[in-house]
Predict the 3D structure of the following.
Amino acid sequence: MRNPIIAGNWKMHKTIAEAKAFISEIQGEIKGTDVEVVLCAPFTLLRDMKLASEGTNIKLGAQNMHFEEKGAYTGEVSVLHLKEIGIDYVIIGHSERRQYFGETDESVNRKLLKAIGHGIRPILCVGETLEEREAGSTKDKVKLQVEKAFVGVPGESAADVVVAYEPIWAIGTGRSATSSDANEVIEYIRSIVEDLYSSEVSEKVRIQYGGSVNPDNVEQIMNEADIDGALVGGASLEPSSFLELVNF
Ligand code: 13P
């Protein structure tokens, strides 16, 4: 039995005051007790959000971290910083980081290993471009991304990784994948995890869909057998809209 996980990825949005107001507006309004609710916010918001969310069932995530624990890496934030303030999750390998900030499958793997080593759960993002989809290479692309990300991850930790399948052409475009197309790729990702580990691990690992998820399509997406959650950008920014998502 996999608990659903709905995560908001706020990207480079919101102030501390807005984040605190958001938390006070949604707390107490989350209905399902089995749904895990995560807010992934810019680094400077997280400490205040942690204090504001104490005693609620809202969990917090960062949107990136460095692959070393400390050192001469000006401008970077390490897993120890996230751990110190009690962060639960970290998004790793979001397509925007791969596209604009030189994130590679190798750096994604190093970050994933570091997060796991410190008990912070990675949300590993994978997904194809429009050209790759049109060329019929979606599955080859995600297979490679998943296999490279999981190199060196021990079997007992593999199910702690949340995978987010985010087709790049569906991000921020209003053009979501159909729920059945998303489910097909996610089912395939589960089979890759089974090949890498075991059916026990693949049955446990949670796989989200991300890309133009909104209150109108979330229920259909969540009804798919292999889709365990959603990673949501735009529609996670308004408390009312985010509540509709977590209360799908
Ligand atoms: P949108 O929900 O705005 O399409 O963004 C998806 C995303 O990138 C979440 O990580």
Notes: The first helix runs from residue 16 to 26. Residues 5-246 form a domain with the TIM Barrel fold (CATH 3.20.20.70).
